[in-house]
Amino acid sequence: MGTGESCQSPRLLPFGMPQQGTTTGRPNNFRLSTGMGCLATQTTGDIVYRVDVPAGGVVVVSTAATWDVVLNVVQAPASNCGSLVSGTTQNITCVASADTTGNETVQFSNTTSAPATYFVLIDGYSTTSSGMFTVTAELLQRPAGPAEIEPNDTRVLADATGQLLTPGTPINGDLGLSEADLFRINVPSTGVLRLTVEGFGCQAFSSTRLQFLDAAANVLSSETLSTASACRLFVGQVQPGTYYVSFARTASGAQSLPYWLTATLVTGRTSEVEPNDTTNQATLFAGQDTIVCGALGMTTDFTDVFLFTLAQPARLHAEVIESMAGVMPSCESNSLTSQLELLSGAGLMLQTNTSGGRGLCSRVDDGTLLSSGTYFLRITEVVSGVRRGFPYCIAVRLR
């Protein structure tokens, strides 16, 4: 086992096996200034661990200590760790870093097609920051699917790769510090397209944007809000043709962001059966990924209710979108002023929303695991002045 005094002699940090150590009494082999992706450390003892990451692997390294730890991660070879010159480490580049007032966590990914080695530098923030610690490395698994082909930052580059986003098959990508990834998708038939961007915790997705573009790269919809079911999500109607999906940074990040992008095309739907104004009259629908459609009236038929049954626990995403009957009011035009409610089988209110989706369209999605049983979805118009009524559809996903 290595001594941990340098990147030439690191200690091994195996996945899923917490390691205990101390920096007290150890030599000071690293003294970093903020820059080149690294965070500053002082003249205290330090220790180096080695993590071997498979191709495409995503790793989370975390520490637990009672003192102010600084984590810096360097990708091999060992020469990338630089050297100490006149009391300061020179020629070092970090791929991930963390320094908060509490325990530290960094996430990084091997975006290459071969295994790679990374060095984890555990150091102190101040001259009094040293002591016992526990460090853990966890290898996160992405779903099976192809990796993105770079460069794909523009429509021209996305076309040049020849890579297509295929409904039902996720693409695994890594978003650079100030990057945009574009993918081409060919839609074979009319339906409702659901795009989801997911990752290992959505907090890191706060400064990202998911856009849906037409064949000329004109933006049709833009989503910067997270949901409980995805870090970024778009649901909307599509006609057959070529489109593009863009996932991009809106502000420069501190490290690359691993993600997977999945497209689902839903073509089947259930139409309301009138009357369905109450829970006793509700229209039944079934399926894990389905569309239910109806229309609210101007003088009558102010409420529509749909019923579904869960054979086993599941999470619900239900979002009001435009009607599939033709040219109708759109979410972005703020014309579908709806309220969507989730009710228990006993008619008790569980969730309600008026404008959580695109434009003023409503969305029910708080991540709650619903137990098996019967539930209702109820849609009404949010009225301010004259009631207008409108046709609509609700995209429902249960998983």
Description:
- The chain is elongated.
- It has one helix spanning 155-161; strands at residues 11-12, 19-22, 47-53, 58-64, 69-75, 83-85, 88-90, 96-98, 105-109, 116-124, 132-140, 171-175, 180-187, 191-198, 208-213, 219-223, 232-238, 241-249, 257-266, 269-271, 283-284, 289-296, 303-310, 314-321, 338-344, 349-353, 363-364, 369-370, 373-381, 390-398.
- It has three domains: 11-140, Jelly Rolls; 155-266, Jelly Rolls (Sandwich); 269-398, Jelly Rolls.
- It is built from one helix and 30 strands.
- A hairpin with a 2-residue loop joins strand 6 (83-85) and strand 7 (88-90).
- The strands form seven sheets. Strands 20, 22, 24, 27, 28 and 30 form a six-stranded mixed β-sheet that branches.
CATH fold category name of the largest domain: Jelly Rolls
CATH architecture of the largest domain: Sandwich
Briefly note the structural class of the backbone. mainly beta
Taking the sheet with the most strands, its summary is: 6 strands, mixed
Task: Estimate the mean pLDDT confidence.
Answer: 93
Give the C-alpha Rg. Answer: 26 Å
What is the CA–CA distance across the termini?
A: 46 Å
> Quaternary status of these chains?
single chain
Task: Give the CA-based shape.
Answer: elongated
Low-confidence stretches: none
**Into how many domains do the coordinates divide?**
3
CATH class value of the largest domain:
Mainly Beta
Helix amount: under 10%
β-strand percent reads: over 45%
Number of strands: 30
Query: Can you count the helices?
Result: 1
